Amino acid sequence: MLGDHWFHGKDGYYDPAFRVPMIVKAPKGGAQGAAVEAFTEHVDVMPTLCDMVGLEAPDQSDGVSLRPFLEGKL
User: Fold this and answer.
1) pLDDT value of residue 29
2) pLDDT recorded at residue 54
3) How many CB atoms within 10 Å of residue 48?
4) Cα angle for residues 70, 73, 63 (degrees, 5° grid)
């Protein structure tokens, strides 16, 4: 939180601790200029990258691929 509300880190209960913008430029176009309001998590980044390069996400990965959002399918 970089000092907001006297917090350093993500241990607060204010919006900056939970709502982090994510901007993605997909290599093959996709849904340009789309805003996704669905709930996503940081753990979704690695499965998304694995999916984009054609690899399986490791079993210990708790996230899911966000590729459908990048392709405008959801």
Assistant:
1) 65
2) 94
3) 21
4) 55
Give the C-alpha separation, 19 to 22, whole Å.
Answer: 9
Q: Pick the closest to residue 72 from 40, 28, 41 (CA basis).
A: 28
- Could you tell me if 66 and 40 are in contact, meaning their C-beta atoms sit under 8 angstroms apart? yes
Structure tokens at 66: 């966000």
CB 34 within 8 A of CB 17: no
- pLDDT of 22 reads 79
Residue whose structure tokens are 């392709």: 71
Tokens of 35: 């805003």
Count of CB atoms situated within 10 Å of the CB of 7: 15
Distance, in Å, from the CA atom of 48 to the CA atom of 68, rounded to the nearest integer, reads 9
Report pLDDT digits (tens) over 1-59. Answer: 566 667 766 666 677 667 777 787 767 766 677 788 888 888 999 999 999 899 999 99
